[in-house]
Write a structure and sequence with these properties.
single chain, 161 residues, mainly beta, 6-stranded mixed sheet, 5-stranded antiparallel sheet, 11 strands, 10% helix, globular, disordered N terminus
Length: 161
């Protein structure tokens, strides 16, 4: 009986000392979203947090059933593997899977202009399930709230994870 008590005490002690699960860290090269100033995502023209950059990149945060991020427009620095014609965009690979990575694609006609609120370098929009920042040198970077998936858009090379 005494041995069982010691095993139970050891198990509880080990559980109490184990690190708690925490949000994953963004990958190397992803900007620190804490370095950007939050702006109110309330745009009277949209029911979802949305914005556009001076380079006409439009993004919607908390989009669709899985509340992911979708950006489209003048996306520069796309990987050469992104073929096709039409408006370039970045979105979840599988809209039905919350844990899907983001991918680049081209579809539909040319990009439409956006009337979403403008976001300038140094600013960010925070939604329920993601954050997007706009930085210098035409940088747009967005990440899910759990820091597991997101993307970086920039002329020097855009990438998604």
């Amino acid at each position: 009986m005494r041995g069982i008590r010691w095993i139970a005490v050891a198990a509880f002690s080990l559980a109490a000392c184990s690190p708690t699960s925490k949000t994953a860290q963004p990958p190397p090269g992803f900007p620190d979203v804490r370095d950007f100033t939050a702006v109110s995502p309330d745009d009277p023209k949209s029911t979802l947090p949305s914005f556009r950059t001076p380079q006409q990149i439009s993004c919607v945060v908390d989009f669709g059933d899985r509340s992911s991020i979708v950006c489209s427009g003048d996306l520069r620095g796309l990987p050469q593997s992104v073929g096709g014609t039409g408006c370039p965009s970045v979105r979840k690979a599988d809209a039905s899977a919350g844990d899907a990575p983001y991918v680049f694609e081209r579809s539909g006609p040319d990009c439409a202009s956006s009337r979403a609120m403008p976001l300038s370098a140094g600013q960010k929009v925070v939604g329920k399930n993601g954050t997007c920042v706009v930085g210098d040198d035409q940088l747009v970077a967005c990440i899910d709230a759990d820091n597991r998936h997101g993307f970086v858009l920039q002329p020097s090379g855009s990438w998604a994870f």
